[in-house]
Amino acid sequence: MIKPLTGNYAAAWGARLARVGVVSAYPITPQTTIVEKLAEFIERGEMDARIIRVESEHSALSAAWGAALGGVRAFTATASHGLLYMHEMLWWAAGSRIPLVMAVVTRTIGPPWNIWTDHSDIMGQRDTGWLIMMSEHNQEVLDSIIQMFKISEDPKVFLPGIVGLDGFILSHTTEPVDIPDQDVVDRFLPERRQPYILKPGDPLIMGNIPSDLRDNVKMRWDIHRSQERAKGVIRDVDREWAKLTGRSYGGLVERYRCDNAKYHIIGMGAWVGDMKEAVDILRDMGYGIGLVKVRYVRPFPGEEIAETLASSKGVIVFDRSVSPGSAGPLYLDVLSHAYIHGVRVPIQNVLAGIAGIDVGYDDIIGGVTMFINALEEGRWPLPSKIQWYFGGGEWWP
Amino acid sequence: MALSIKALPKKKYVLPGNAACPGCPEAIGLKYVGMALGDRAILVIPAGCTSVIQGLAPGSGLSFPIANVPFASSDAVAAGLSAAIDARGEDGVIVVWAGDGGTADIGFATLSGAAERGDNVIHVCVDNEAYMNTGIQRSSLTPYGAWTTTTWTGKREGKKEMPLIMLMHRVPYVATASIAYPTDFIEKLRRAADMKGFKYIHLHAPCPVGWRFNPSKTVEVARLAVQTGMWILFEAINGRVRISPFSLPYKDRKRRKPLEDYLKVQGRFRGIGREDIERIKSMIDDAWNTLLKFT
């Protein structure tokens, strides 16, 4: 059934179709309409779930995690400061190996107060152990939430997962979305599996002090190993979903017009749509360019990216957030994994769209042509390998 | 019918090899939780002394199902667990076992939220009147005049009235208890477990390490707190306050033991003067007068 849905309603539909049993959330712009929609589904009896209307985001994740510890499929959603406020709990959810799914509607972090999107919030969670992905459009939001439950509850993974969507650009923008039939989702998504359930009469203790710190290291190591294993699960789940619905997103990455591409753009999130448009125009202009859309930030698709970059003459990574004193986090991951896999290619970082500055396909074309022209004219590196874009054609340095 | 200790289940929930200090009131209290709720209990425990008392993983000195959780999360985790138990149709009692910090300070917003929503949870505040696990720092439940490692000359502020604050949340059940009165505490836990909604029990738990008294005197000190009127045992079902039998005699201030008996046995009050003692006495009178207005 194709319906016009905002990104947030698509997220709510994803949770509903996944037969979530407990929803717990706290309103924050631009996430609010997810929890509003879920409350409506539940109160109308269209969704058989309990809703816990908590007093903060810290409690939102705590309650969702508590429900998941108790053996029930749970869902929450947040953004920006809410995500930062629950940061501590992200570690506990991942560290306890309890499957759980959260939608993160990306938004800047203050000061100053600013409700527009950038990726500072979601990129700040990379070390928590959660699976983290970003969506390009509303269909991908809905599909990814259902997929994330399956990935999260796979015994090879048993980690919580975040489905990210850009605030307003997706969250409040209506697109036609195919809502799969419940029986299609039921066939795809098995009964909930989790490593253990906290229940009466079973004296299982989660989280007491370890007698041997090596056990603690192994817990962290096992999270890392499960992230690595998740790569295969993500690819399998993508293929299985494609069989049922005809929609494949490529698993961890999507390559767009990468055949015979000499240069590559790397980006993630909603503006990948603008990047595809930019690639089409640049191709028409005669530039041999392709795009690697990063879907999963964690686990990071190092192999796929290195494989694509091995034949590249130049790569430009667009980051929508920055780690001040270093560079854009996506750039840093691309650099590291290219190096790990022995790929040596010029890689430029563009920090753009930060603080919600609007970036269109023309801005992307501007940055890409500047980079390629510098490379071809032997002027690269530009004044810096890390460039800021402030919008309106203004670059620094 | 009065509760008989002999009639209580014999199964042990606090096991040999736990890591409690000698004379630990929390270990005493946990035994009573086991006696009262048995296998129905699931404990949610924020950081604090009981994080240590459990002993080291993969072993355990407690035989409850336990979720160890970060400070500010306990009542919300409990709310989620309670929803899960309900959804799965299990007969469980979710108990938050939190200290004074996890209850009245860092955990307070979460506690207040769960109480206001009426989540089906029992919150036990095991109150040793300071942050003992980090080394005896003051909390909002440290009493006036007490020495701590962040109030070297004695705390200048009084104790927050947590039970009354919870009473004002209009939850179905609020009670105070003391580790010196096991039958009273056990009965209160059982009453709370039989009620739906949010229940709050504030357990007075004198700590020999932090209060500076001989570890063999824990129960005695706890009893003196009640006998001097410093700690009042009461319960409130649906807002109706009733002074519990063990505290009833001390409604009459003449029947209270001298406050000095309670203060003298504790090193933490060593530095206080005559004026401070008078001030504490007037605080006790105020506490009784306020509470009796609700009876």
What brief labels describe this structure?
heterodimer; A: 397 residues; Rossmann fold; 2 domains; seven-stranded mixed β-sheet; 19% strand; B: alpha/beta; 8 strands; 36% helix; globular
What does this structure look like?
The complex is a heterodimer of chains A (397) and B (295). Chain A is an alpha/beta fold. Chain A folds into two domains: 2-245, Rossmann fold, CATH 3.40.50.970; 253-396, Rossmann fold. Chain A is 40% helix and 19% strand. Chain A has a seven-stranded mixed beta sheet, with helices on both faces. Chain A has a seven-stranded mixed beta sheet with strand order 10-12-11-14-15-16-17, with helices on both faces. In chain A, β11, α10 (272-285) and β12 (289-294) form a beta-alpha-beta unit. In chain A, α1 (7-17) packs parallel to α7 (138-152), α3 (57-69) runs parallel beside α5 and α11 crosses α12. The longest helix of chain A has 33 residues, at 213-245. The radius of gyration of chain A is 21 Å and the shape is globular. With 295 residues, chain B is an alpha/beta fold. Chain B has a single domain (11-292), classed as Rossmann fold (3-Layer(aba) Sandwich), CATH 3.40.50. Chain B is built from eleven helices and eight strands. In chain B, strands 2-1-3-4-6-5-7-8 form an eight-stranded mixed beta sheet, with helices on both faces. In chain B, α1 packs across α7 (182-193) and α3 runs parallel beside α5. The two termini of chain B are 23 Å apart. The mean pLDDT of chain B is 97. The interface between A and B is large, with 42 and 52 residues. β9 of chain A pairs parallel with β2 (66-69) of chain B, so a sheet runs across the interface.
